[in-house]
Amino acid sequence: MTEHPAPPVAIIIFSTTETRESNARVINAFMTAKEIIEADGEVEIIFDGAGVTAAVEFAGPDHQMHRLYSQVSGHVTGVCRFCARSYEVLERADELGISLVDEWKQHPSLYTRIKAGVYILTF
């Protein structure tokens, strides 16, 4: 079987850290990103919807999973501008140096990525 180069991947995190299950989704998203990074693949991480709250929590230096976040933070494209405002974490994202993604009506453009051949994974 011939191995083909992997397409770029966008990991979209919608999960919060409110429950053990949702927290595990965020961790699984980071672990997937680490796997892609270690395989020299192309990956970006975007926090959207309620996931914007997870971004500012994990990015905070006092969070118990900050070290894991730090290992993938170079691949974090940012948080949805609209959702960061809606969930009232816009200022905190700015304080932590997390970029805002607002390509389509203040949201990330998943369609632009799909047209470019990017695989979309959601957590």
Topology:
Blueprint (H helix, E strand, L loop, with lengths): L8 E5 L6 H19 L4 E5 L3 H9 L6 H7 L3 E5 H6 L3 H6 L4 E2 L8 H6 L3 E4 L1
Parallel strand pairs: 1-2, 1-5, 2-3, 3-4
- The best one-word shape is globular
Number of DSSP-assigned strands: 5
CATH superfamily: DsrEFH-like
Report the portion of residues in β strands.
Answer: 15-25%
User: What is the SS-derived class?
Assistant: alpha/beta
Output the CATH class name. Answer: Alpha Beta
CATH fold name = Hypothetical Protein Ychn, Chain: A
Word description of this protein:
43% of the residues lie in helices and 17% in strands. It is α/β, with parallel strands linked by helices. The protein has a single domain, classed as 3-Layer(aba) Sandwich (Hypothetical Protein Ychn, Chain: A), CATH 3.40.1260. The protein has a five-stranded parallel sheet. Helix 1 runs parallel beside helix 3. It starts with 8 loop residues before the first strand and ends with a strand.
Name the features.
single chain; 123 residues; alpha/beta; Hypothetical Protein Ychn, Chain: A; five-stranded parallel β-sheet; 5 strands; globular
Produce a short descriptive summary.
The chain is α/β, with parallel strands linked by helices and 123 residues long. It has a single domain, classed as DsrEFH-like (Hypothetical Protein Ychn, Chain: A, 3-Layer(aba) Sandwich), CATH 3.40.1260.
